[in-house]
Amino acid sequence: MNILIVKYLPSGSKSNTLGLLNHFTDNLSTKHNITEVDLLKSPPKYFDELTLGAYAKRNFGGMELDSKELEAIKPLDDLNEQFVNADLVVLALPMHNFSLPGIVKVYLDAIMQSGKVFKYENGTPVGLMDKMKFVTLYTSAGKYLGDYEFLDNVKTLLKIELDFMGIKDYNFVHASSGNPDNIESEFANAKQEIDQIIQNWNI
């Protein structure tokens, strides 16, 4: 299995999310081809005027790009190719201000390409990634349940993106670190969820 790990862990070795990611990789039952993308060490390129113009011209207009346009969009294409060739994507991040860290959204913008992960048929978008598995490992200080569930926009935004790409088999594993009285149980429960995902996917 080709496993792509996309991580943004700005706390480094002190990262709570790193503990979940390490638990995932350490408990894989078989050997896999694992590739890591560290968004801290290799920040994804954001759309500028040239890159966005090249994307629209090629992916929506069906036109050939010139050398400058090809050079501008190549970093996004490289990330997209890496993504579409994965059987399983593991996204590891902290929640920032109730949502995805900005750099993670920039990564998603790079890989979310028309004709690559989705297409339009008779004006209707169709996801192309229905064979991919996807798991998000994330942590936050707060715990957002019940009336406060709407504050967890990590899950809300990613669900939109994953559904749009046609990914059906995805999971979210979350742990809260804000309450010292239950932090151990939070992370123990999260690790149990990871174990169950590994078992269910037979990986």
Radius of gyration: 18 Å
Shape: globular
Strand content: 15-25%
- Give the structural class: alpha/beta
- The tally of helices reads 6
Oligomer type? single chain
The largest β sheet comes out as: 5 strands, parallel
Tally of strands: 7
Helicity level: 40-55%
Low-confidence stretches: none
Average per-residue pLDDT, rounded, comes to 97
**What is the terminal separation in angstroms?**
8 Å
Q: Write the H/E string, N to C.
A: EHEHHEHEEEHEH
Strand order in space, largest sheet? 2-1-3-6-7
Features:
203 residues; alpha/beta; 5-stranded parallel beta sheet; two-stranded antiparallel ribbon; 6 helices; globular
Task: Provide a concise account of the structure shown.
The chain is α/β, with parallel strands linked by helices.
Furnish the topology, listing elements before pairings.
Elements: E1 2-7, H1 16-26, E2 33-38, H2 49-60, H3 67-84, E3 88-94, H4 102-111, E4 118-121, E5 124-127, E6 133-140, H5 153-164, E7 169-176, H6 183-201
Parallel strand pairs: 1-2, 1-3, 3-6, 6-7
Antiparallel strand pairs: 4-5
Helix pairs in contact: 2-3
Architecture overview:
- The protein has helices at residues 16-26, 49-60, 67-84, 102-111, 153-164, 183-201; strands spanning 2-7, 33-38, 88-94, 118-121, 124-127, 133-140, 169-176.
- The chain is an alpha/beta fold and 203 residues long.
- Strands 2-1-3-6-7 form a five-stranded parallel sheet, with helices on both faces. A two-stranded antiparallel ribbon has the order 4-5.
- The chain is globular and about 60 Å long.
- It starts with a strand and ends with a helix.
